[in-house]
Amino acid sequence: MRVIGIETSCDETAVAVYDAARGLLAHRLYSQIPLHRAYGGVVPELASRDHVRRLLPLVREALADAGTDRRTIDGVAYTAGPGLIGALLVGAGFARSLAYAWERPVVPVHHLEGHLLAPLLEADAPGFPFLALLVSGGHTQLVDVRGLGDYRILGESLDDAAGEAFDKTAKLLGLPYPGGAALARLAETGRPGRFVFPRPMLDRGGLDFSFSGLKTAALVALRGRLLDDETRADVARAFEDAVVDTLAEKSRRALEATGRRSLVLAGGVGANRRLRERLREVARASGAALHVPRPEFCTDNGAMIALAGCMRLQTGAHRDVSITARAAWELGGQLTGV
Question: Where in the chain do CATH 3.30.420.40 domains reside?
């Protein structure tokens, strides 16, 4: 089974070729960050138009990198949601057209399922079942992954996702877009302990999260202060410490509750160095192993979509050539309509 995967859920255009026997053969990605930086965030219409421009050249490049052509492709996978609906429809329409022209089956992939399965791209891939901490700009969830398509959400953010809170706090600090990565870099130079922010929802049971209050805590800490480099770095460090401590403790509780022996860190915030280190400590203390994809597969990419699509197609799953996408789509829920 050899599958080409297409990812266009937001501001990255990505294409990859995955082979069930040989693994990942090629992956290409075009980031739109320079395009959106002037606006301080993603402009949906600009994102959609740029996906239109980039997809076909990226497909050609990925096929060339993989040393293959359309005749050896067994299926087409694409991100059907959740995400920006215009961007999703560009990818869906393109993938359906490829599948129709190549006379191959096509399978829609849940974007979050792609993230959950991304660690399977690595040599030390975990086996099912495992516990996953999914942390991105739009989602923060603890998921019990019992098998392909068999997901039980144990806890999730009740307001801002962790990545969203990173980005909003970065704006308060005057950091450039994308703010989350810039805040993490700034926090590396900050002094621990000068500011101490709350660890939200650790004083109660359950595995849900809440991060909107941390943004308020940062705002209060900055009020009336000279915003010099040291203060900005110390606030960034306090914010990151609070998020990492919260995610680590909730993960520890989830490991204890489920008894899982594999912990997966997935999503864009999974590239955060301090979070990786803390979760490795948590996993070790719980008798579990931590599995994290390489940083390029933490953020949005086509490799995870090609892998998930390959696994789905191997089970016989595919759809007709109608164009299907959903801006909102619960993990494990059925995909119906636009």
Answer: 2-117+297-314, 129-292
Q: Is cis: bond before 178, omega within 30 of 0?
A: yes
DSSP-assigned letters across all residues of 227-273:
--HHHHHHHHHHHHHHHHHHHHHHHHHHHHHH--SEEEEESGGGG-H
Tokens linked to 188: 């590396």
In this structure, whether the domain defined by 129-292 belongs to CATH 3.30.420.40 is answered with yes
The pTM (predicted TM-score) of the whole model is 0.95
CA dist 289 and 280 (Å) reads: 8
CA 265: distance to chain centroid? 10
Give tens-digit pLDDT for 207-259: 999 999 999 999 999 999 988 999 999 999 999 999 999 999 999 999 999 99
CB contact at 8 A, 291 and 124? yes
CA 198 to chain centre: 25
